Amino acid sequence: MKMYSAVPLISHAKELFPICRSITGEGARSTLKYFEDFHTEYKRLVFKTGEKVFDWEVPKEWNINDAYLEHIESGKRFAQFSSSNLHILGYSTPIDKIMNFEEIQSKIFTYKDQPEWIPYVTSYYRENWGFCLSQVEKDTMPNGKYRVFIDSKLEDGELHISHALLEGSSKKEIFFSSYICHPSMANNELSGPVVLNAILDYVKQKYPEPRFSYRFVLAPETIGSISYLSLYAQEMRENIICGFNLSCVGDERAYSYIQSPYADTLADKSLSAALISRDNVCVYSFLERGSDERQYCSPGIELPLCTFCRSKFGKYPEYHTNADDFNVVTDNGLQGAFGVMKDIIDAFETCIYPSLVSPCEPQLSKRGLYPNISKKLNGKHPAKTRMDLLSYCNGRNSIFDIVSLVNVDLANVVEELRLLLAHGLVVDESKLHE
Question: What is the pTM of this model?
Answer without folding.
Answer: 0.96
